[in-house]
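Supplementary Note 3. Input sequence used for the single-chain structure prediction.
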Amino acid sequence: MTNKKRVAIVTGGAAGLGLAITRRLVSEGITTVMIGRNEKNLRETAAELGSLCSYKVLDLQQVAAIPACVQEIVAEFGQLDILVNNAGINHKKPFLEVTDDEFFHVIQTNVLSVFAMSREVARLMAAAGSGSIVNISSMAAQYGIPKVIAYTAAKSAIEGMTKAMAVELSPLGIRINCVAPGFIKTDMSSKALDNDPERKNKVLSRTPMGYLGLPEDIADAVFYLSSANAKYITGVIMPVDGGNSVGF
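The predicted structure, written as discrete structure tokens, is reproduced below.
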């Protein structure tokens, strides 16, 4: 359903969950600009999805380059209606072995980039009096998962930022929400779980629905939260996890 021209940014929009989100937004007639590091993936995705899909090459660790990137997009498309902060990295290592640099690297990529991107986009949305920002969290922020201390800290920060941004920005017409994916079936997760039957059984046994989600399930939730159907929803953390976060 499309009422008017809309323009979206999806960070990390050419791979994994980001790709599913990009596909969904484009399928709804939303002009979607992917931001990412891998120009080959970005170019191939844009070619596949057609004229509504374009991209900007940017390593989001380069926080100082974010304002200029956002301005380029606005100059090209004239507006910004939706921001999906999807890009992020993980670092799996026992807590006692994680170095300061490793911890900061994850925080810089996963938290500082979300802050800077949201700030720049929200300034434009505030001037327009409307907009929707959807952040992507993780089950790591819902309960303790071993060997991902930096990722857990980052995703917990994003959930807190979602609430703080919603309180401050919603009076300006900007809704801020967050999707917390559960265990989603991707090539990477399937390979990891298939090679570790004990972990796979643990994941499925505490997921009441009894199976892994699909990337499209996350994309559907993101689209819903960014759409007019969610016009009175702001500041929520929505687990899309088959009940995993409440399972026992």
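The mean pLDDT is 95. The beta strands are 7-11, 31-36, 53-57, 82-85, 131-136, 174-181, 237-240.
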